[in-house]
Amino acid sequence: MTDIILRAINLTKRYKNRLAVDHLNIEVRQGEIFGFLGPNGAGKSTTIRMILRLIFPTGGDVEIFGASLKEAGHRALANVGAVVEKPAFYGHLSAMRNMEILGGLQKPVGRRRIMEYLERVGLAERAFDPVKTYSHGMNQRLGLALILLKEPPLIILDEPTTGLDPQGMKEVRELILELSRERGVTVLLSSHLLYEVEMIATRMAIIHHGRLRVGGSVHDLLKQGPSEVLIKTDRPAEALQFLKTIDTYSSARIQVDGGSINIELDQERIPELNRQLVSAGFNVGALVPQRTLETYFLNLIEGREGADNP
Amino acid sequence: MIRLIWFELIKTFTRWRTYIGFIAFGIIVPLVVTGLKLGGQDSFKRHLFSLLQNDFIIGGNVLNGWFFGFFFMGALWVHVPVVLTIVAGDQIAGEGNAGTFRFLLTHSVSRTRIITAKFIVTLIYTAVMVLFIGGLTIGLSLCAFGGGDLLVVRKGILVIQEARLPYLFLLAYGLATLSMFVVSSLCFLFSAFTDNPIGPIIATMAVIIVSIIIISLPFDLFQAVRPYLFVNYFDAWQKVFDDPVPWDIISMNIAILAGFMITFFLAAVVYFSRKDILS
Predict the structure, then answer these.
(1) What are the tens digits of pLDDT across the range A176-216?
(2) CA distance A58 to chain B (A)
(3) B contacts of A86 (beta carbons < 8 Å)
(4) Cβ contact B7–A52 (<8 Å)
(5) Is the pLDDT of residue A310 over 50?
(6) DSSP string covering A100-168, please?
(7) How far is A101 from chain B (nearest CA, A)?
(8) Which of A52, A94, A101, A134 should one mutate to test binding to chain B, selecting the residue with the greatest count of B CBs within 10 A?
(9) Alpha-carbon gap: A297 to the closest alpha carbon of chain B (Å)
(10) Rg (alpha carbons) of chain A, rounded to whole number
């Protein structure tokens, strides 16, 4: 029995002469938080819309819990909850009424249960106000309440923290982690906030120009290739000259950035760098690995990193 | 399915735009009835008498409530489509425009069922609107001008006894409702093509106006296409006031109008079932 609950197989979407998604293959495993990354126009939203049957693929298929979207149609989405881009509701209706309608399409839901979920996202006091009076952040929270109401084992979130204040963003991240850890919910998370994916995702895929550039565990991907290390020392200019005299670093990218030095270096070599600087009489205040998903992501889409097979 | 229809009813009948037509006709009809009561009735009388007084002796209450109810029906059916399209055009395009399809269609409910529920509610709205106008015009006219036999000036002069009139008007409004169903269905189809609710309103009215122009002009070419235009069958309701009532023609008109309605609906279902939701 496989633990893959969502699989895109050669998923392709062509709009006339433009190939929006090109033979995309991704797999999302049960219980994981899967980060789906790419710059604007990379094909993330098109992919998510194809998975949710809002857009019909030109080629390929999607399997959700083993059911082919092509064959099962809307029935394949029975166990999926999703918020796609900016949540939109019936503005003239209250949050309660919106939840009754959108949450009750498959089976009726009681008001008490709806209120529980509205309380959970902090909207209980505004439950009977027209949604058109809500802020963008409140709409986002209402969208989350709606998918929680369905209690699906697979949640697809497209930019879920957009428009939220820092506290709201933190709450959403915590909610996603809680759903994953405590309820075993699988989450496919698309986000332009790369650090968000780095903070909560277990695996990720990056697409660019509609093609999968890399896929794998966040931890493994971050370890790939050289990373940067930030050096804080009392004499940065002299330290820079010193490092350039050492063969190991002579070909590495080194630059002074304010009062510190950035050097391209594998993280495993940080202790050796520290020893060399201290032996040469420099006072080393900090050696901070700088390789983040953002660096990796930017390097990848700018063509400075090689793509892996997913 | 009933729950989906109920949800669509809530969405439709809690929007103020749904009541624009009710408000408009709720103001216009009483104003016209008041105008007729305060003197406008005389111009009708002069016109009617100039047509008939050489051949007939006219007695009794000819310009009664039924007469004006009949007059309103003939005058308003061109205007009713405008208010119907406000709601019908919004049924699918409005959801696309608002982005609510992103939630509505990602639940495990077929697009066909959602579209069917929306279509049924569009028909319910259409029927309610037509019957509201019918009830208002006849009710106010009877209150203002009283009852009596109906004088119909169509293919000659026909006097219909008052006892038969409630039944005939009910039948006429049933046929008028069917005609308006076709208008709403066409607007509903246009609504499936776009995410802008204004587009279907303009497109539907353009089709109706062009069609009316075509069937009005006596050119051979235009007369040849006339049977293929649904507005050609809009006057089916008037035929119930003929003597004898041409049931065969009325039945044929009902079948043709129903055919247009079903075709427009099925086209909307087929198109929307494969439509990419990009909004």
Answers:
(1) 888 888 888 899 998 877 777 888 888 888 888 888 887 78
(2) 11
(3) 99
(4) no
(5) no
(6) HHHHSSSS---HHHHHHHHHHTT-GGGTTSBGGGS-HHHHHHHHHHHHHHH--SEEEEESTTTT--HHH
(7) 6
(8) A101
(9) 27
(10) 23
DSSP tally for chain B: helices H, then strands E: 12, 2
Residue A290 host element (H or E): none
Distance (Å, whole) CA B162 – CA B7: 42
Backbone CA torsion sign across B95, B99, B100, B101:
positive
Residue of B3, B16, B108, B110 best to disrupt the A interface, most CBs of A under 10 A: B108
| Overall average pLDDT of the B106-114 stretch | 85
Using CB atoms, which residue from B4, B11, B107 is nearest to A77? B107
> How many other C-beta atoms lie within 10 A of the C-beta of residue A88?
20
**What tokens does A148 get?**
């929680």
3-state secondary structure A245-257: CCHHHHCCCEEEE
Amino acid A264 reads E
CA distance B229 to B225: 7
How would you classify the pairing of strands A154-158 and A67-68?
A: unpaired
Cis geometry, peptide bond prior to residue A130 (ω within 30 degrees of 0): no
Half-sphere exposure of residue B221: CA atoms within 13 angstroms, side-chain side: 1
How far apart, in whole angstroms, are the C-alpha atoms of residue B195 and residue B200?
9
pLDDT at A223: 67
Tokens found for residue B162: 């008052």
Strands A211-217 and A203-208: antiparallel
Q: How is residue B182 written in tokens?
A: 């076709």
Spell out a b/e string for B202-238, using b for 16 or more CB atoms within 10 Å of the CB, else e.
ebbbebbeebeebbeeeeeeeeeeeeebbbbbbbbbb
A161 near A196, Cβ under 8 Å? yes
CA angle B242, B244, B248 (to 5 degrees): 90
Residues of A in contact with B100 (CB under 8 A): 88-90
